[in-house]
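Here is one chain, start to finish.
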Amino acid sequence: MKKDEYDFVIVGAGSAGCVVAEALSRDPAVSVLLLEAGPIDRNIMIHIPAGVYRAFRDKRINWNYVSEPEAGLNGRRIPTPRGRVVGGSSSINSMVYMRGHPDDFNRWERDHGLAGWGFADCLPYFKAAESYDQGADDWRGSTGLLKVTRTDHPDPLYDAFLEAGAQAGQGSSSDLNGKYPEGVARYDATKSHNRRCSAATAFLTPALGRTNFKLQTGANVENLETHGHRVEGVTFQFGGKRQAVKAKREVILCGGAINSPQLLMLSGIGPSEHLRDCGIRVVVDLPGVGQNLRDHTKIKLQFACRKPLAFHRIGNPLVKAVAGMQWALTGRGIATSNIWEAGGLIRSNEQVTHPNLQY
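Its structure:
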């Protein structure tokens, strides 16, 4: 086993891990190691906005999890994609930048005791993280590392959707992340110069040149090394060999909602009865680990279009090749679209106090 030592060891180079790694490594007095099971984000389909379908379906950069049979969904097993690449799920998602409605944050604080998670508490961090191409105001930031762009690809279907929302009385918003986040609108996207701006692009790029920071891809973390109730390091597989690394200060789990609790339980931290059933030695009985995950329901409605539009031709290999070359040479054309460019926050009925559905 190769032994090594860093001040901070971060597990997972996804949306959280990239941000934490960049922030910690600003201090030249500390050493930071970032471990990622997947590869570096060189796949061109990650960076072409319209390549999102190809990136999403690429089994080399997606964990491709599937749920256990869901009793509430007639026993079906539900696909649960997670990014397995530098940038994590921010490298394979649809790039829609949506903070959520402020009243949801306030409800968490008011009704569920999450002090410090009200929208007024979180807003400064949202603003500090982003650089919005429409400029800064009381709700938006313009100096952060994450580039956010208002979508503007022309398509009659977007215009028809926005008009229909207004006609239906659902209203319209000039900015769903701004002062009045209700109604239909053009979405914001995590794009910069018509390329995906993932957490890796935004946050790791500044960090990679620092001598006190190391990114190790292809490192599949298997276990947290504990001494008593303190995690002091990790063991991982790399290049077919088992290696270990020690953290002088902290091990930080950024594996996401699925992989972080999985790693905790594999390391003996979790519900004791479940761990014993799996033959895992209990280090800390922590019943909440691996519990209470709630993913949002997604319902897809599809309609036939009465008129042929430019997007319908994108399946033609020649048209696709031309679109790719146009993107590469000029940074323009249909390949610059992240596809999901319009949406909305609406109320499902008149009794709810704020929007509870997202288009």
